[in-house]
Known about the structure:
The complex is a heterodimer of chains A (121) and B (763).
Chain A: H1 2-23, H2 41-48, H3 50-57, H4 60-63, H5 69-72, H6 85-91
Helix pairs in contact in A: 2-3
Chain B: H1 5-26, H2 39-43, E1 50-55, E2 64-70, E3 73-79, H3 92-95, H4 97-101, E4 111-114, E5 117-120, H5 123-141, E6 146-150, H6 156-170, E7 175-177, H7 184-194, E8 211-215, H8 219-222, H9 224-236, E9 241-245, E10 258-260, H10 268-280, H11 286-292, E11 293-296, E12 301-302, H12 304-311, H13 316-323, H14 327-339, E13 343-347, H15 349-352, H16 357-371, E14 380-383, H17 390-396, E15 403-404, E16 408-409, H18 413-423, H19 438-447, E17 452-456, H20 460-463, H21 471-476, E18 478-483, E19 496-499, E20 508-511, E21 516-520, H22 533-546, H23 556-565, H24 579-584, E22 588-589, H25 613-616, E23 631-634, E24 651-656, H26 672-677, E25 682-685, H27 687-693, E26 700-705, E27 708-716, E28 724-728, E29 756-762
Helix pairs in contact in B: 5-22, 6-17, 6-22, 6-23, 7-16, 10-13, 10-14, 10-16, 13-14
Bound molecules: iron/sulfur cluster.
Iron/sulfur cluster (SF4) binds at residues 56, 58-59, 61-63, 86, 90-91, 93-94, 223-225 of chain B.
Amino acid sequence: MKKFYLALLIIIAAVVVSYGFIGAQQSQGDKHPDVDWTLSCQECHSEMTPEVYKDWELSKHGDVDFGCYICHGDGQEVFYPKGTDERCGGCHAAQLVEFEKTKFNSCYDCHNGHTLKFHNE
Amino acid sequence: MSLSRRDFLRASALSAAATTLGIGSIFGNEAFAKAKIDEADFMQDSKGVQWHKSVCRFCGVGCGVMLGVKDGKPVGIRGDKENTVNSGLLCVKAFYLHQMITAKNRLLYPMIRKNGKLTRATWEEALDLVASKFSEIRDKYGPDALAFYGSGQAETEETYVANKLFKGHIGTNNVEGNPRLCMASAVGGYTTTFGADEPIGTYDDIEKCDLFFIVGSNTAEAHPVLYDRIARRKRQNPNVKIVIVDPRKTPTNKIADLHLQVIPGYDLAIIHAIAKLIIDNGYTDEQFIKDSVNFSDGKNPITYEDYKKFLEKYTPEYAAKQCGVNADDIVKAAKLFGETPRVMTMWCMGVNQRVAGVFLNNLIHNLHLLTGKLGKDGCDSFSLTGQPNACGGVREGGGLCHLLPGHRVVANEQHRKEIAELWNVPAEKIQPKPGKHTVAMFDALGKGEIKGIYILCTNPAQSIPNLNKYLKGMSDAFMVVAESFHPTETSQVADVVLPAAFWGEKEGVYGCTERRSQHMAQALKPSGEARWDGFILADIAKRMGYGNNFEHFTSVEAVWTEYIKSTKGKDMDLTGATFARLKKVRGLRWPVPSEDHPGTTHRFTDGDPYFPKDKAAGKRMYFYTKPDGRATIFARPDKGPEEPTSAEYPIALTTGRIMEQWHTMTMTGQVPELVRAAPNPYVEINPEDAKEWGVKTRDKVRMVTKRGSLIVEAKVVDRPRKGTIFVPWHWPESLTNILTIDAVDPGSKEPEYKVAACRVEKA
Ligand code: SF4
């Protein structure tokens, strides 16, 4: 049974990955769940997704307190389930990459979105 | 629909798995190096977006930004990687700048109050009304019944036109700006100590500095990109030390080696104690003191020996008791200051917004003068600026009631003559007496002494201290507000509201903290009927009968070109920073006396084009803005706050900014992402106090001062020291300045936003 779930997880993950590669910029229609909007992202996510929160907190973004909204929007009026390369480039202009000249498609091909580290680190 | 923790975890697990599967197996990191960035594409990218060179609209760091425009619309923001201030990096506020251009609250047409209601009007109607009303007030009550209140966010050219109109033509020195509320004490400190305003060094010193002594500045939130440069310096050189003096633990503490968490308003004694320890332990640069320093008690010259005697009382133990810190920590701080060869002190509102603001500025300079840690790589007594053009437009442009353009003062006859000649008016037209400083100006509005006021690019109905006292005066007077946004607390009570072109819709120059003047491109047409502030003011001038001297202002460049003439030969010479040159380069740091001059990294020393080698006669530094070339070490008393805590008001209230919001939220409050970061007004309460008061995070608490009360949510957090609360002042629905005190520094006239006595109750 465990093996079945693991296989299922890998299949789903692979789908998410390819979708992520092909449609990273199009996957913005998803809605953030309706939550208590009087809270900041961090107030809620530190409880709801402590692992992700921890990854963020220990990252460079967390270090300077650039919150979830910077990549994901406010959740209510604007929501990007996955960050977009344009948004990375806004602040990190010196690291802008012309992907068409590379074999990469996105900043997230190399960087984890929360730890911001390279995936093989 | 609400989401359970399990749903969240499932989503996270999937994305984590995706991450693991995807990258390592498909791509190798080595390919990243092959990704070349084409320089030309950066200016005009493959999607047809034009990127225009500009400067951030927010804090005084002066980061270079590129505004992306496509089909006449703002589409994005990027950091300008060619700009050495930020090398492409931006903080969260700048990231959303393009969204603010098209924000819902943009003011698109002029409005006039009719039957108590602001009603749409034509430009003709609005300008005729302003000019006729101002002329009537001038003729009936004299020029001092009029006033101008500007901004450290206005362009230099805008402040210049206003100054020329009000001081030079209407004939009143009632010309102020919000830098009075943030930088005036720094001006007072620099001018009294060194004889001239603004820092000696530049940001270049950061990468060479080994000890950052940060006083009253939450650099991480208020100047994030500069903080990043400091943090990087420390990361790359673990021996670099950071000492913080502040009543709060702030995000800046993440990089601190030592934090002296002082009681608000009592830190002067610490700086004196450090000075004493520097002398006692032989950390002084005696040759430098001999060559380049005088001593004064504030009234009369004193000797070095007198100064030493004055310091006798400031033992670490005495200072520790005054400020509520450990004496050992003061000793540690002094040792670090004395033993580290390259030291930069940086400070901000925690030092300036105090009734002892100028004194504290002087005392900080004292430390650098005693040790000679000035005018060389990695060393400076470096004031951080709050607003993007407080230095350039208001301090250099002379936009305060005692100043004239080019670091001149109204009280100096020669200065008045020079500026009158430039403005083509008789010298007598400029009054020798300073006008009313900001708090006095709004007081005079209430008393009916000032009957008409023009407010440009600022929101005093939210930002001046002790608001309840001044709001009525603003409603009663004839008030004109030139703004890009409406409603603001101020525009709502105005008689005339004029739509001003916003950042990106106009070109102009901003001068940041490090004496750097930078050009901002116009990338867009102004929204609606908005116009450039300089043209609006020039049109009013023409209607008031001063046309001759404003007719040639047909472009922003024409104003800049006239302005820089006023700087020729001055310590802040911008003659070489022509508009054409500024358009090409990423700013120039004055003095820059000719077009082939590269600008100056350290003043008053070799490399400064005005450094008089003959007079200096071998001395490393010569402060040529002082009569004898010597800066002054001041023996200033350790003055405390205007309103100490008491039995009735036992808590010290301090106010300030958060990173995601700017001032009164007129701009940043329009960006949902930034609002999400801190959706509600709040007060930070120390956990021990909270326990004592039975208060938890999100409970409502009432804060009461002698001037008013306010209810906000509590945020229980180990940030303010026990007995202190911190209230950010951004939210218009929760006017923090109802609580603050309007007592001002007697020298700088800057109010004490940083300390008031209050009581806190559970609401
Ligand atoms: S640090 Fe200041 S100047 Fe730089 S991007 Fe942020 S707000 Fe703008």
